[in-house]
Amino acid sequence: MKYQIRLSGSGGQGLILGSILLSEAASKEGKNVLQSQAYGPASRGGSSRADVIIADEEIYYPSAESLELLLCLTQEAADKYITLLKSDGILIFDSSNVKINPIKAETIAIPFTQIAIDKLKTSLVTNIIAIAFIATLTELISLKELKKAIKNNIKEKFIDLDIKAAELGVKLAKDYKNGKVIKT
Amino acid sequence: MKYQIRLSGSGGQGLILGSILLSEAASKEGKNVLQSQAYGPASRGGSSRADVIIADEEIYYPSAESLELLLCLTQEAADKYITLLKSDGILIFDSSNVKINPIKAETIAIPFTQIAIDKLKTSLVTNIIAIAFIATLTELISLKELKKAIKNNIKEKFIDLDIKAAELGVKLAKDYKNGKVIKT
User: Which structural domain, as residue segments, surrounds residue A159?
Assistant: First the structure.
């Protein structure tokens, strides 16, 4: 098993933090994880991305860019990275901000930003809702380990809010799996 | 310019955090950075490592494992990674814990853990002293940007301590460059 996930969006959307939470939680589930991200002028102002590779065996290098799962929170990120998704992969995008032309891969539209604002009164937790959605959808990471990773990595004053966001993301993924239409 | 740094030691020594601080600060210095780390059972209990690649151009992949700079905080990490260092690279090791046989690369012995305990009463800031040492030694990152990265990423109650640790690491690097023998 080797599962390559890319979280993409713009700088400031907390995707690096999101990837660290996923990585730490996945490792506690007994998986090997290689996590990487680009920083710097080349990414500034434009699209930002953080990668998480989860595998049963030890991972030495990222393999060729061929993603099992791509999360896109902005149109620019979607336009930049969508061609890296495997044809049997999963595309998850924030339908509050992004429009996608039909592709062969499974395509999941969730209005993450709008849900964050409607349910938790802030778009700042969009990243946490999205990674909790991914954790549950892929069945790679439990809510229990995700909560622990949040407690380990988030500033104390935001922990309660982020745990609520994680619970919301898990619920959305369960609803999606059960065939419910997800609206804001 | 492409500069590959590996921070190695054991889990719990804060090397991932250290690599994130270096990466964020380097990007603010106008560099492109690719930062990566392994998590999971394969690294648990044994050696842990986090990589920072700093370059003028955008970095797409880690290149073959050939390091310009290797930091080793434990013997196990030194034994595991020392062969990856370029012959004209720099090895920095914690002489509180590690013994190194002579190698061709520039070899810098600093008793980071002992200095942390003697000067700041806790070994928990060994990682911060070491990354500040690297930042100044390589002249890639200023203390100013390192402090900003600490403020952005560290829990509030530890910020003052970590800034002192960074200042100490910078001083040690300046002393080293000026030819002073560094003892605890």
Answer: 2-177
Residues of B in contact with A32 (CB under 8 A): 38-43
Q: What are phi and psi of A152, to 5 degrees?
A: -75, -25
**Residues of chain B contacting A23 with CB distance shorter than 8 Å:** 37, 39
Task: Give me the number of domains chain A comprises.
Answer: 1
Bridge partners (DSSP) listed for residue B6: B51, B70
For residue B73, tell me if it sits in a domain: yes
Taking 50 as the pLDDT cut, the residues of chain A under it are: none
Within a domain: B63: yes
At position B60, the amino acid (one-letter code) is: Y
φ and ψ of A34, to 5 deg: -120, 125
- The separation between the first and the last C-alpha atoms of chain A, rounded to the nearest angstrom, is 34
Give the chain B residue whose CA is nearest to the CA of A26: B40
Measured in whole angstroms, how far is the alpha carbon of residue A170 from the centre of its chain? Answer: 12
Report, as an integer, the average pLDDT of B82-110.
95
| CATH code, B83 | 3.40.920.10
The answer to whether position B115 is within a domain reads: yes
> Is A181 in CB contact (< 8 Å) with chain B?
no
A-B contacts at Cβ under 8 angstroms? 84
Tens-place pLDDT, residues B4-60: 999 999 888 899 899 999 999 999 999 999 999 888 765 555 678 899 999 998 776
Query: Residue B96: which residues within 8 A CB-CB, separation 6 or more?
Result: B111, B112, B113, B114, B184
Interface of B with A in 85-104 (CB under 8 A): none
- pLDDT of B11 reads 80
What pLDDT score does B183 carry?
61
Q: Is residue A37 part of a domain?
A: yes
| Model confidence, pTM | 0.80
